[in-house]
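Query form — protein SNF2 super family

QUESTION: What is the three-dimensional structure of this chain?
INPUT:
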Amino acid sequence: EDAQKLLCCDGLQQLGCTAVYHMYCLDPPLTRLPAGDWYCPECAHKFRYQDIERVLDYRSSLLHPPPPPPSTPTPHSTPISTPTPNPHPQPHPHISPGPTRREYHVKWKGESYLHCSWEPEEGLAKMYRVRGVVCVCWGGGGEGEGGRGLRESREAEEREAEETGEYVHGVNPLWLEVDRILAEQKGRAQMEYLVKWKDLGYDQCTWELESDIAGYDAAIQRFRETKWRRGLAGDLDLPPVKRRRRRLRAAWRMCKSRWGSGTRKWHSTPDFLHGGSLHPYQLEGLNWLYHKYCTGDAVILADEMGLGKTVQTIAFLASLHAECCELPHLVVVPLSTMRNWEREFETWAPNLNVVSLAGNVEARQVRKLKRRMFHSVFFDRASAKKDRVKFHVLLTSYEMLALEAGQLSKGLQYGVLVVDEGHRLKNKDSKLFQLLTQFDVRHKVLLTGTPLQNHLGELFMLLHFLEPDKFPSRAAFESRFSSLSQNEDVTQLHALLQPHMLRRLKNDVMKQLPPKMEQLVRVELSPQQREIYRSLLLQHSSVLVGHRAAVAAAGGATTALKNLMMELRKACNHPFLVAHQAGRGGAGRGGRGRHPTDLDSLVTHSGKLQLVDKMAMRLRDAGHRLIIFSQFTRTLDLLEEWLVGRGLGYMRIDGTVAGSERQKRIDRFNQHPDSYFCFLLSTRAGGLGINLATADTVIIFDSDWNPHNDLQAQARAHRLGQDKPVMIYRLVTRQTIEERMMQVSRKKMMLEHLVVRKMSSGGGGELKQSELDDILRYGAQELFADEGDEG
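ANSWER: The structure tokens for SNF2 super family are given below.
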């Protein structure tokens, strides 16, 4: 019957479906034959659920709303006005809420979190074992006791989400906010935009209809303003004649005849900066950077950590943009600081078009292609068409630079190359040093709070990278300044460095910054630690006794000594860290992913942890917040166990935490002081470019061989934004390898003081009496005691 109106499902081959429907029997009925393949409702349902990327959350919902509670009129009641209906009606306690069904919050492939939806379990069950998936996601079991624990954990997460603004039903609210528009295209009925979402990578960009992102007109307008921008601010607002005249004036300013003038100077915060007012010393830094750009002197901005080198650099790049520099700039930073750099650019220089190159292969492809970093819209007399870059600043990390160096350096000139944490260029044979020399740059700027760490050779390599013609030979440099015992040598070195380095200290330029005090705390070994320390020395006695002979005969058997040194340092932290002691305390690798060790045993076995345990409780009661640094991630594992056992809220960052996740944890710690008391950081991963000014107490659980790494760590709390005095506690175990490490570190700090710090104070200043007293008295008692023992 009505064979001409029958529709056969096209899911025969894929799903084996043989369903046939009349067009008027469908819901809703069809009035005309569909174009292309047609699938019955059941097959269409199956195909739809094949596009699920993952399940985010689940809930139980009522199939039917509960009936209103029965009214019981009171005798002799008087008529009253109709009450306002309750927007959140509560079911009557004597009425069953009715049947429920489980729904799942799903993320669809190729679509943003804006289009997540709740899907019924019966529909998903035909395609997936959803219940098992959700149980794995939430770490729960079925119903009963496991289900009750699951519900409690979910309720706790929802409460935390309300407080912190984090995940709600598996979705971070930031993922629903437009970060920027990358491209546009005409759709069937309206414009479509390629959207980069906040706090998500470029590999998760999606095309959205204009109606879906209503309310983000500013992002669309910003995209359109930068779509054909050629590097000059405000071009679109000018008539064509004035626009051309402005470009000619810009070319004249940046031509070689203009090179070397350096006459521009700002006496107050420029109008092109929107983040606030610069401090006087930051304004001085801006003028110095701009002057050195014009005079052609590559430089090192070596301000002490926490004085805002990032802001000064952004102000400098914004000044070049305002002065009509058409060349793009390349900024290379540590991965952990990329998000902070992005935020500072958005705050201080929103007019700059900043492209961040990071993430996986897909994310980088989206940025290179969809953001159209290169586009051919510039015409000149020399060639019919010339490629120009669209961005003003390319922001990337060391790791991404190694992957994309060929693409980024080919046929492209940069105005300024900025390298954050520039002391990483102290080795000429390093991969980063070799890569950066491939780039064609007009000017170079290194940012580092520690230009000299161990010896003068490291400082020379930084200068050689900046000015290879002026500083060609390391041997000649070291030979000339091998001895800095004479004041004349120090003065000559300062005169050589003066044109290329600007160094300011917090004590000199930030009088209002709260003081920082460091206390060296000597800790005794626990009986268990003392036993292990002695056993390690006895086990390696042959290495210690035969070391000199081995050095003379074979050129040095240092590997065994380094291994012993590492084991001794671990023993000073906690006996559970030593390999053959892992089984005794049950700590293994510090306890991650297993049942925690007995808390009392964990604390009493370590002299350092005994002290920290007592300090932490008093600090918390007094309203302080704590940062703990350690060289070893396994030490952080044990400290994490201790914090969990004491019920203290904490955050943690080490080398295994991704860059985007690092910034989330930093923000969470800074924004919620009542929830998080302590921040655990590895010295190398957490000592660079991290702002934790909401904490006022720092404990260095174990010192670094390089004292400047510990200074970097201290600067995480003692920096701009800190309104409390900062107390630093450096833990050193008495009569162990750690005391000798401190003596070696002081020698390195003395060299840095002679070469860098005296230059920052004018070059002619003498050491303060307190500094001399501190340097001379340090270690004297232990040295005389050792001499007495030997006598």
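ADDITIONAL NOTE: The two ends are 117 Å apart (CA to CA).
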